[in-house]
Specification:
Chains A, B: Pfam families: FAD-oxidase_C (PF02913), FAD_binding_4 (PF01565). Chains A, B: GO terms for molecular function: (S)-2-hydroxy-acid oxidase activity; FAD binding. Chains A, B: This is Glycolate oxidase. The structure is a homodimer. In chain A, strands 12, 13, 14, 15, 16, 17, 18 and 19 form an 8-stranded antiparallel beta sheet that branches. The radius of gyration of chain A is 23 Å and the shape is globular. Chain A has 16 helices and 19 strands. The longest helix of chain A has 18 residues, at about 385-400. Helix content of chain A is about 35%, strand content about 20%. In chain A, a hairpin with a 4-residue loop joins strand 5 and strand 6 (about 100-105). In chain A, helix 1 (about 1-10) packs antiparallel against helix 3 (about 45-55), helix 8 crosses helix 10 and helix 9 (about 245-255) packs across helix 12. Chain A has about 475 residues and is an alpha+beta fold. The first copy, chain A, folds into 5 domains: about 1-85, Uridine Diphospho-n-acetylenolpyruvylglucosamine Reductase, domain 2 (2-Layer Sandwich); about 90-205, Uridine Diphospho-n-acetylenolpyruvylglucosamine Reductase, domain 3, CATH 3.30.465.10; about 210-320, Alpha-Beta Plaits, CATH 3.30.70.2190; about 325-415, Alpha-Beta Plaits (2-Layer Sandwich); about 425-440 and about 455-465, no CATH class. Chain A has helices at about 1-10, 15-20, 45-55, 110-115, 135-140, 145-150, 185-190, 220-235, 245-255, 275-295, 305-315, 320-325, 340-355, 385-400, 420, 425-440; strands at about 15, 35-40, 60-65, 80-85, 90-95, 100-105, 120, 155-165, 170-175, 195-205, 205, 210-220, 240-245, 265-275, 300, 330, 335, 360-365, 370-375. Chains A and B meet through strand 9, helix 7, helix 10 and helix 16 of A and strand 9, helix 7, helix 10 and helix 16 of B.
Chain lengths: ~475, ~475
Amino acid sequence: MKALQTACGEQHVLTAHHALRAYESDGLLQYAVVPRAAVLPGSAEEVVAVVRACREHGVPWVARGSGSGLSGGALPIAEGVLIVLSRLRRIVEVDLANQRVVCEPGVTNVAISAAVGPTHFYPPDPSSQIVCSIGGNVAENSGGAHCFKYGFTTNYVCGLEVVLPDGSVAQLGGKEADLPGYDLHGVFVGSEGTLGIATRITLRVVPTPESVRTLVAFFATPAQAGLAVSEIVAAGVVPGAIEMMDRLSIDASEQMAGAGWPSDAGAALLVELDGPAAEIAERFDELSAICAVAGSSEVRVARDAAERDVFWRMRKAAFPAMGRISPHYYVQDSVIPRTRLAEVLERIDALARDAGLRVANVFHAGDGNLHPLVCYDGHVPGEAERAEELAGEIVLACVRAGGSITGEHGVGVDKKRYMPRMFGEPDLAAFQKLRCAFDPAGLANPGKVMPAPRLCGEVPGPYRRHPLEQAGLAERM
Amino acid sequence: MKALQTACGEQHVLTAHHALRAYESDGLLQYAVVPRAAVLPGSAEEVVAVVRACREHGVPWVARGSGSGLSGGALPIAEGVLIVLSRLRRIVEVDLANQRVVCEPGVTNVAISAAVGPTHFYPPDPSSQIVCSIGGNVAENSGGAHCFKYGFTTNYVCGLEVVLPDGSVAQLGGKEADLPGYDLHGVFVGSEGTLGIATRITLRVVPTPESVRTLVAFFATPAQAGLAVSEIVAAGVVPGAIEMMDRLSIDASEQMAGAGWPSDAGAALLVELDGPAAEIAERFDELSAICAVAGSSEVRVARDAAERDVFWRMRKAAFPAMGRISPHYYVQDSVIPRTRLAEVLERIDALARDAGLRVANVFHAGDGNLHPLVCYDGHVPGEAERAEELAGEIVLACVRAGGSITGEHGVGVDKKRYMPRMFGEPDLAAFQKLRCAFDPAGLANPGKVMPAPRLCGEVPGPYRRHPLEQAGLAERM
């Protein structure tokens, strides 16, 4: 503890239980652990000092950005240190000529677009973008509504300065897009805090499209809307975003955003085109026609920026608004091949009926990235367990349809038990080889991502034993 | 040797010196080494058997595709086995609904586009695309003329089945774009054969653009053409390709492709727009206007597909055509920030004058990816050495301008000495951690990429000594 205080100043090391309670969960509230200590370094040098102190004392650590993650990736460890990066929030450089921004990990996602606007913007846009940090986006390879066209965080990270678990500092990648050597910045993105801490991040930003047009088309059922999605994509249209909301989500969002969407529609499809004005004008007519042919009961076109904002508020409010129609909910995140949308949605309906629970569906339809929201009342005995079980069945149904256990929220603690459903033993062993190469002592976010705690047994050194097994080590710091 | 024959059949194991001579170099003819044996497996299972046999006997190996690489990445090892993958040339699956192709590593680059055309195509297009293999493209993270808009190989590889140096087989990634777990398929792309052998590759293909239009604009100097490039990009135009050729390259290519381009132009800028017809028509006029304002002496627009082909033949002939104006040449490959094109081109001119050699410049101007061709006559004593030295000075000039030692040809043997100019010790150590995690014995393409032979000393096991130091081991196979 003394080492942490020396590194960051006494006032930036929290050890009081009530202060630590603020950090016991990330956005996945179903899990909570109070850490031994939380430390808030104020510079990359202080991060290095903290990581070195942890290494020296064999204490595991977890890095945390804004704590808005949805897979428990920033869940603390009881005997460990939580390294909170929210004080590292400087935008270091804006280089529009080369379409690059260099920033610290605690900068919020939305602050990047603000710093490069109005001429440029940063495409990956999680719904939590007002609060979520770029460092967290890097850890989870975050997506968002615009990823169908623009790609995920990994497509925008060019370079990283990282503090590795051994306390060394490496520069991975740089301002250029494709450097020689191994693509370690690529592997670092999405590594969920298990390979080190990014202290400086170089991002690519792109020119703001000349024109943006947004419509919402209403359908009788999500399956019908899913068909429209397939036809839009098959026609070669690449929308900036294609988002779907089902009846339950629309109901919830209306209570917060009040768009006045038709109360009899079974699904709403929000489609946005962006690009050169000449292209958009022509493509937009085509898009409206496809929706009509696919059976849309009504197509509303946003007439101005204000109406576009209302459309997007409906979509982005869906998670928080769910609280208005259900005391608790569990956000699921999985991916299916776009071509199997209708079939999987029906399967989810059937599973929900069997469990006697309601499931709202909001999703990035272009990517086939579902976000089923399992509604439950935690005050009713057994209902939380039933909800978790249902969420698990939904994940497995997606995997069986050729999909993935997570689209953009990460594995964290929440999904690690499903990893063997997606990966064979040699594939998991390959992951483990990488992890042990960078963290032989198992100090960086242990207990996350991998299905069972594994030791880097083959690798010798002073940290052979798993630190979680070494009782009381934290006391000695 | 017996193990190899058992694995692949006697006729697929070459040991005769004259047969092995065919494999002594890849496309970088300045280096040549005859391997102990070359083996041509006919299936993934045979690749596994070969890698396991090499592991068992501690024999190093090098994987080779078509041998068209330009950094000596597939240069054999005298005491090692060359694993030639050209028999693995099946396209396993074409799934246009999900925009995916699954193929073996020996399939040529151009065969992918042929298999998915005319509705789709595979964007990364090295000039050698008629012969180069997808496996080689994966190893080198190959680029091409269309990478400015479309990105490199790494942006199109979704999944890999790989044989790791320990003989295990892992599935990295898959058909979906963003899977949970570490992005190992991302790190495998561009790893230059040092992490294993890809035996099955899942690629993303994209819809063929509705419309393509191509022009060539002539300028007094490459610097002036470079200015036009900056202005095109600054205007928000994203061409499918922006390629530049200087006077010497035009002269060479005219002898092969005979386009009849003006004989007094100092530089030709080949610009291609692709996309929706409505967009292209409007953008093309804008593009022509930008070239005129930037001082172009003439703009020629390809009137039809035949003329477009002539334009592209001029560009793609530049390397082979160089043989018509110089007995030998050395292809350099480096990257500079686009904004510093003019300055670096002048520096290259000055360096060439000092060395008394001619340097032709052909390059992917949008990416700032230069391909200076250093011309020399190997029959004149000392000239080959002077050419190599000049090539080295050009690389360093690019690094000093904030660039990179390689854009798309890889490090191989040719550039490894420059790695410390780009990377600090902790960065190289991070690379080495990864390499040792997957190849602790140092059997997979040793002596490539990293600046000095390093041993995975910290890792114990039967392969502690570097195999190149273990004389005669190959004899025992």
